[in-house]
Specification:
about 280 residues; mainly alpha; MetI-like fold; Putrescine transport system permease protein; cell membrane; transmembrane helix; MetI-like_sf; transport
Length: about 280
């Protein structure tokens, strides 16, 4: 009975992964299709990548998306780290429950609602104080920081909870001031989580379509918006090439984050083993 259940779960897992990854694999393969018709195979070719890299419209969208993603990831990591520290290290401060609820709200809020609310907010600000005068880089970046900092905060919270406070308390007992403890002990131990959070925020920003479509304006077209606008006019092989490049970029970010987390876990395990040997 146990073997039958195990085989069933293995088959279902395999089918689920295949259902997800086979379309992605087909997209990558057809990005090298020589034919102008997406469903018709015309032999292997890199012509669509060449046309893609020669398109000024695509390069402008890529540059804008990368600029937004870098600024968003940096500020989201900073704010998310401060929020995570407040939730884990500052104890039961007044309004902690409300703050925690507001912090995780972007994780469960539908993107359509988030985008619409930010659009109304920016329009109201523009009418009241004249800023922003137009929607574009600034409004998209602020919108991305709003939801991506929540992901960073959750990552930092998990890391802080797993670290414990033994070293920090020991440093404080030896006379180190709170800021020194934070910069010399807490932040270095948080480095893998900070890098992972930064890469996660970068990926979320680079991949966002729904929220950006609400808060953008004329002349500020991000890469996902460009892809979506082209798909609405019909499938084109250069869209497959563009999507393939995005898949590779996002996969690299995820792989780097996974490697950093694994190395940190291995280092902590070695430190624990050495501590046990010294005690023994």
């Amino acid at each position: 009975m146990t073997q039958t259940r195990s085989r069933f779960l293995t088959v279902m897992l395999t089918l689920g992964l295949a259902f997800f990854y086979i379309p992605i694999l087909l997209l990558v393969i057809y990005s090298f299709n020589n034919s102008k018709l997406v469903p018709v195979w015309g032999g292997w070719s890199t012509r669509w990548y060449q046309e893609l890299f020669q398109s000024e419209e695509v390069w402008e969208a890529v540059l804008l998306s990368l600029q937004i993603a870098v600024v968003n990831a940096t500020f989201a990591t900073l704010l998310g780290t401060l929020a995570g520290l407040a939730m884990v290290r500052f104890g039961g401060f007044r309004g902690r429950t409300l703050f925690g609820g507001m912090l995780v709200a972007p994780l469960v809020m539908p993107e359509v609602i988030t985008g619409l609310s930010l659009l109304v907010f920016f329009i109201s600000l523009s009418e009241l104080i004249g800023w922003p005068s137009q929607r574009g880089f600034t409004t998209i970046t602020i919108a991305h920081i709003t939801f991506s900092m929540a992901f960073v905060a959750v990552t930092v919270q998990a890391r802080l909870t797993g670290m414990g406070q033994t070293l920090e308390e020991a440093a404080a007992d030896l006379g180190a001031k709170p800021f020194k403890v934070l910069t010399a002990i807490t932040i270095p131990r948080l480095t893998p989580a900070l890098i992972s959070g930064w890469l996660l925020a970068f990926t979320l920003s680079l991949d966002d379509l729904v929220i950006a479509s609400f808060v953008t304006g004329p002349g500020s077209t991000t890469l996902p918006i460009l892809i979506f606008s082209r798909i609405r006019l019909g499938l084109r092989p250069d869209i497959n090439a563009m999507a393939t490049i995005m898949i590779i970029a996002i996969s690299i970010c995820v792989a780097i984050a996974a490697i950093l987390i694994f190395r940190q876990q291995q280092a902590e395990l070695r430190d624990q083993q050495m501590a046990f040997k010294e005690e023994g």
